[in-house]
Amino acid sequence: MADVLILAIETATGCGGVSLTKGGVDEGRVLAEYTLQPEITHSRRLLGSVGAMMEAAGVGWGDLDAVAVSLGPGSFTGLRIGMAAAKGIAMGASLPLLGVPTLDGLAAQATPTELPLCCLLDARKQQVYAAFYSFQAGCCLRTSDFMVVSAEQLAQRIQAPTLVVGPGINACQATLAEQPLAHLAPVGLLHPRAAFIGFVGAVMLAQGQGNDDLVPLYVRASEAELNLRHQ
Length: 231
Prior knowledge:
With about 230 residues, this protein is an alpha/beta fold. It is about 30% helix and about 30% strand. The strands form 2 sheets. Strands 6, 7, 8, 9, 10 and 11 form a 6-stranded mixed beta sheet that branches.
């Protein structure tokens, strides 16, 4: 798995990125990674960033082993753009396509700790996307479903000392600051990175996972779906 070369795309948040990585979470290395929070949408720069990165790294399409994409939850528009680009690249280059849950990628960035881990992304509407994890035998394992909750609901779910990470902290910092069991990491410490989508993707590829029919993991219904149900 150490030589598996993955092109990864991360567009679940406003700060998106692309990367080229070799190997998995434990032994992996980054060949190249572009990260940018643009004033324009991901769709207007994504493929150009991929091409420029691959040229700079001296990597051709035939060198790749798979394409990995951040599956969500996150920005509905960003996820659709990233998914469409990843599917197009994988189909055009005849490569396996791997969908990595965004919160799983974020958890893989955390330094192993004895504390349970809670990863957060801003879901807007005074809510956060969240999932809980624990480190066991050197592996980061998800111990909850993906959820979308208010700050108050999240605080109630924290029943033991827990390390809370991710940009979603900004959306619930005041509430969690009053929860003595919540240990908040600096917000800038961890943000979803394409490189870790690639590392987790390499592990999935080694396990025989891959799916050309991927759909974004929204967790929460879109505005269009909510309006349709209301009608």
